[in-house]
Amino acid sequence: MDLSLISKTADLLIASNHAIVLTGAGISTESGVPDFRSPGGIWEQYDPAMFFYERFLANPNEVWEALIDMHGNSDFTLWEAQPNQGHQALSYLEEIGIIKTLITQNVDNLHQKAGNKNVVEFHGNLLFAKCLNCGAKYGYQQVLKDVEHIFPPVCSCGGTLKPDAVFFGEAIPQKAMIESTKEANLCDLMLVIGTSAQVEPAASLPLIAKGMNNMLIGLANIPVMKTHCSVVEINREPTPLTGAVSDFLIQGSAGEILSQIAERIKEKKR
Ligand SMILES: [Zn+2]
Question: 38-57, pLDDT tens digit by residue?
Answer without folding.
Answer: 766 777 788 888 889 999 99
